[in-house]
Amino acid sequence: MSGSDSIIPHILSSTSLAKSDLVSCVPSKYLTTWGFSSTTFSSWTVTVERNAGHWAGSLATAGYLFGIGVSSTSLGPKEVAGMTSTSYALVCVGGGSLCFAHDSQQDAVAPPLDVLPVTVTVAIRPETPDVTVFTYKLASVADGRRVSLVGRRVIHDSALSTAAFPIFTVSQRVKILFPTYV
Hints:
- By secondary structure, the chain is mainly beta.
- The chain has one domain (14-177): SPRY domain (Jelly Rolls, Sandwich), CATH 2.60.120.
- 5% of the residues lie in helices and 47% in strands.
- It is built from two helices and twelve strands.
- The chain has helices spanning 14-18, 158-162, and strands spanning 23-27, 31-36, 43-50, 66-71, 87-93, 97-102, 105-110, 118-128, 131-140, 147-156, 165-171, 174-177.
- The protein has a seven-stranded antiparallel beta sheet with strand order 1-2-11-4-5-6-7. Strands 10-9-8-3-12 form a five-stranded antiparallel beta sheet.
- Strand 6 (97-102) and strand 7 (105-110) form a beta hairpin.
- The radius of gyration is 15 Å and the shape is globular.
């Protein structure tokens, strides 16, 4: 990883994903995990919005909504960002709680979200062969209110120095949008 490359994928539909060598989409009954097979970039940005077709409730009643992070391996069909031993992610779980998650262990990083959309930027930077710095930034101006959060985590995992795959997991209640600007 060069530490300076970034990814701005241009994904048009789930049909285009199936044909791509770069992206894999793994749906389950309630969650969909997206993973990139490339490890040549170190930052990515997505926007998470409500999926109006699947959700009319409030964030207070929501379960796992999304996870955005990195994994030392590609995730399988039943694996969820931040809930495996190989993945680290910023997740939004029960009631809009924002947590940093690894191996199903969750550590709250901010008060719960109460409104979407939210834009999330994640970056990773290898520091030593067994240390990677994971930084995140959330921003939202939904309902005329500004929400901003910046944080970082130091990850001690030598496997991430070898390979770090960007991962995304979303529930049917939300949709994930990738930027279309260059």
